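Hello,

Our lab assistant flagged a job as stuck in the queue for most of the afternoon. It eventually completed. Since we weren't sure the result was trustworthy after the delay, we are filing this so someone can double-check. Below is the sequence as submitted and the structure that was eventually returned. Let us know if re-running is recommended.
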Amino acid sequence: MRFKSKRPAAVSPAISNRNGVIMRKKIAILTVLVLALAGCTLAQEVKGQEKRTYAQKLVDDLFAKRKDLVSMGIHVTPPGSSDNVIIASNVKSKLGKKSSEPDMLVMTSGNPLVQQKPDNVYDIVLPLYERSGKTIGIVGMNLQCKAGESEASALLRARGIIDGLKKQIPSEAKLFQELR
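-- returned structure --
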């Protein structure tokens, strides 16, 4: 009767090399899978950035047409919220910012808020209306003016912008509609 040795049998170099090749293939496959998963996640994030609301489209369209707009924000109360916030703006960091008390006074009173800033810019806040004439929020905008342009002239241009928006807003709900 023969006794088995407790020492492991020597592994031939061919088997050791084969195991190494298999291990490298497994690592390569896992690497490809991880990179593919990361690519899918990144694609979803980029795709998510493509979504925008109708309100944001209105702002973007105005900036494409008007060179006198320095900044603009549409303030409306989102569904399910009690606070009026900026729902669309050319300044992305402002999105979601709660409307100030002076801004809200414009909405409730209907009276504009106009302040002259340096560099021939007027900061103007006006009520925002849907097509029916119902007040649904406010628009804050900074308008670049010509040297010496009066407050009344700047306010007239701002009201023209608001009138144009009013024609494009059939309802408050439309502002929150997601577009692709």
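-- support follow-up --
The delay was a queue issue, not a problem with the job. The result is valid. Strands lie at 52-53, 69-76, 85-89, 113-117, 121-129, 135-144, 178-179. The longest strand covers residues 135-144.
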